[in-house]
From TrEMBL, chain A:
Gene3D superfamilies referenced in this protein's UniProt entry, alphabetically: Tctex-1
Domain of life: Eukaryota
Family per similarity comment: Belongs to the dynein light chain Tctex-type family.
Underlying gene: Dynlt1_0
PANTHER family to which the protein is assigned, alphabetical: DYNEIN LIGHT CHAIN TCTEX-TYPE 1, T-COMPLEX-ASSOCIATED-TESTIS-EXPRESSED 1/ DYNEIN LIGHT CHAIN
Name this polypeptide is given: DYLT1 protein
Pfam families the UniProt entry points to: Tctex-1 (PF03645)
Amino acid sequence: MEEFQTGEETTFVVDEISTIIKESVEGAIGGNAYQHSRVNQWSSNVVEQCLSQLTKLGKPFKYIVTCIIMQKNGAGLQTASSCFWDNSTDGSCTVRWENKSMYCIVSVFGLAL
Amino acid sequence: MGESGEMLDNSYVIRPNFQHKFKPATAKECIHQILKEELVSKQYDPEQVPALTRALSEAVKDKLKEMGYDRYKLVVQVVIGEQRGEGVKMAARCFWDADTDNYAQDIYMNEILLLHLPLLVLQSDPCW
């Protein structure tokens, strides 16, 4: 029986994912100020746009995308994640974006099939 | 051709049967216990919070591993924020197999801090 999967297709490439995330965030909320009434829609847009771009890559991966949007108020925020997976094929990428009124933190986890 | 090293027999089981399936309610209980123990009367201290978040995520991941989900991959995320009246929104979307994968989450608040802990569980196949 031969190997059907080559090494190139089934690893998580952080740079590519990071670019996709930045473009999605810019597209969804770039240039807007924090508005409580719109934040719901913004976070959904960011996440859905990221996910649809990721699935278009066509790689054999399961994806999890999370997005946190926080108003700039002087408060602190800390996130951490811990994962039990296969180090050679799975990976994660976190991008921190900000403008004058809010922070946006997007994490993408990719798990190979 | 088999992989070298691991001596696992083929079980030919592609999907988890009911006993081995991830149960969100049990996992949520388990997360809740850990949060209650660790965070009762903790303050938001910018020096200590990074270590606290990492320790919490490791603790939850280890506890989940003990529960016997050995054919699952786990992703645990911990978010701790300071309560100062700011607005925060968190969203997540997943692209997975809805039959076998699931998630559990818990939220803990006291006057000083707010903690949100989503836990995502995806099936893997270590024997391929």
